[in-house]
Structure formats: structure tokens, C-alpha cells
Specification:
The chain is mainly α and 151 residues long. Helices cover 71% and strands 8% of the residues. The longest helix is centred in the first third of the chain and has 35 residues. The mean pLDDT is 81.
């Protein structure tokens, strides 16, 4: 499934680059590709630091930064797409760097894969807390909070 997508995207990129090159010239096309890569790298750095700050703030509030971690994955993929020469990959990469469209991508991934993620049988989530007032407490008296469900 991945190989046909790779070949199709490569052929589309070549077609678009040649078409733009015929319209505005080869040198202008190369300059335009470099400019989009530079703009993308600036946005990549800005959005990466912003997401890192949001993740740190979530952890300070004792929350799991799950959404921020997914944002980081989308930002990473967007950065790779921006470094790939071509206009189609640049557009997709820039969309991945915009916060509103990034949230849309993440929602679509969760929507498609939520059934697979949450339907596994015998799934266990454990959250273990450590009491800072009694660090040398006997190990047998530790309380483990958790959820368990079986389909």
C-alpha cells in the first residue's frame, strides 16, 4: 500500500515541478522550492517549541500530554515533507504545521483507529502513585489504582 502511494506522489511532484518550471522558468522554480523550505523550517521550529511548552504545562498540571505528543508526531512528519522538494509535499507539510489543521489530522487518525486501539481484550491501565511522606513504607502496602475490562 505504501509503495504505490510513494510512486504516485513522486510522479505528481515531478509533473507539478515541470509545469511550474515551464510557466515561470527553471531558476524561479528552484528558488520558490527553497523559499518554501525556509519558511517551513521557521514554522517547524516555532510550532515545535510551542508544542513542547504545551506538553510541559500539561505535565506541570499532572496531566498526560497525549495530544501534545500526537502533535509532535504530526510536526515531525510535516518537517520531513517540507524538506522533500516539491510543491505538493510542501502544501501538506505546511498544513501539518497549522494548529487548526493539525488538530483535524489528529482527530481523523483517532476517529479511524479508535476502534482498534480501545477494543483489545484484556486491556489494563495502571497508575501507580508513590507517597512522598512515607518513602520507606513496606512494599506490601502499596495501593495500585487501575482499570480493567474484558470484551
Amino acid at each position: 500500500m505504501l509503495f504505490p502511494l510513494f510512486v504516485t506522489m513522486t510522479l505528481l511532484e515531478i509533473y507539478v515541478l515541470v509545469s511550474v518550471g515551464e510557466s515561470i522558468g527553471g531558476f524561479s522554480t528552484v528558488v520558490l522550492v527553497v523559499i518554501t523550505a525556509l519558511i517551513g523550517s521557521i514554522l517547524l521550529k516555532q510550532q515545535g517549541w510551542s508544542t513542547m511548552a504545551k506538553a510541559q504545562k500539561a505535565m506541570e498540571n499532572d496531566q498526560t500530554p497525549a495530544f501534545e505528543m500526537m502533535e509532535g508526531v504530526v510536526i515531525l512528519i510535516s518537517g520531513v515533507l517540507l524538506l522533500t522538494p516539491g510543491f505538493i509535499t510542501d502544501i501538506i507539510g505546511l498544513l501539518g504545521l497549522m494548529p487548526f489543521s493539525r488538530a483535524y489530522f489528529i482527530d481523523k487518525v483517532f476517529e479511524k483507529n479508535a476502534q482498534q486501539i480501545f477494543s483489545r481484550s484484556n486491556t489494563v491501565f495502571i497508575h501507580k502513585t508513590q507517597d512522598s511522606q512515607h518513602p520507606k513504607q513496606d512494599k506490601k502496602n502499596n495501593t495500585i489504582e487501575g482499570e480493567f475490562w474484558e470484551d
